[in-house]
Request: fold
Amino acid sequence: MKHFVIAGILVAVLTSLVYYFLQHVGLLPVAASLQAQPIDQLFSIHFFLIAFLFSLIVVFLGYSLVVFRQRPGEVGDGAHFTGSNKLEVLWTFIPLATVLSISFIGAQSLAKVQSTDPQALNVNVTAGQWYWSFEYPDYGVTSQSLYLPVDRQVLLRLTSLDVIHSFWVPEFRVKQDVLPGANLVKELRITPTRTGTYTVRCAELCGGAHAYMTAPVVVVKADEFKTWVNQQMNAAQGDPLERGKAL
Reply:
């Protein structure tokens, strides 16, 4: 029992250190959407499990190599057992319970990510080799940049003109494959929570210029978004030369 207590303390200490490292080393970009919160909670659970399993293996292995090593003059086998039904039941039940628990938490997170807002801003997203185009049907505006108001849900309807692409803004966490075909329009909901400039990336290998298939995402305050929309609408209704530049 003394060995289990010592090893348990070492596992707890190493788990805490590794978990702290994983949380603060900057593996994830800044969370900039409401949907990122439940996803980051899942990441935190996985980081803890990774830290715990790593510590459990390393500590027991290292402790055994040091404490139960063969001493000079010892030639026989050490004390051991060949089987344990209780241990087999235990290491079957614990992983099963862990997987089921994570599945339940994952289902709850998915429900939060997919929650709908009837006042959501509608944006039609078109993907092609190799560009993004964003249409605001409520305003009759089309842009090569995705402008979004902060703290308002956006309903993205995504379609592709050629091959499979994938819409991904790392700071928003959520990602959606974009499929070709009029009947295969996908939907993705995002609620930005931080103003700033981000980047849409294609997360599906789609051809030679896949790595350069990006577009700016600009999250602004509500009044700044209205100003931008008005500017775009005025440009679209004014001089044909200005309309051409805008398009």
In short: The helical segments are 2-24, 36-67, 85-113, 222-237, 240-246. Residues 36-67 form the longest helix (32 residues).
